[in-house]
Amino acid sequence: MKKSISTVYSFIQMKTGTMAENKRDKMILVRNLPIAVKIFVQHHFPNRRITFAETKNTSKGMIYVVTLNDGIKAEFNENGGWEKVDCKMGAVPASLIPAKIEAFMHEFHPCTPIVKIEKAEKGYEVTLSNYFTQKFDNLEHMA
User: Fold this and answer.
1) Predicted TM-score of the model (pTM)
2) Rounded to whole angstroms, what are the CA distances from 25 to 19, 54, 123?
């Protein structure tokens, strides 16, 4: 009975793609990360270290995902350029926030830190500590 249940479970996973996706995801050693990723972490998060690194294949291509010792996660494209930084409930370093976004947030959400920033196709998307999300279209218009 156990064998048939696990067979059915495996079949369902294959059909939904979860098993196949996990095979494409691969844990890697920190020393194998692009130098741009390591420099980014040293520059923007100087008192933290990378505790976990993996590669993932997505519809946009391969990405690197790193987790820092305090739970912060960052995603990088295959060239090592950052795509997303999620600081959970801590503030995203000001050095990562474009000046126009910083000015807008300071004016309209002065006491609410940005906890997540993501590069979008035509701009940025930020999430505040109160879970409010704001999209910026090429830093000129809010979506």
Assistant:
1) 0.79
2) 10, 7, 27
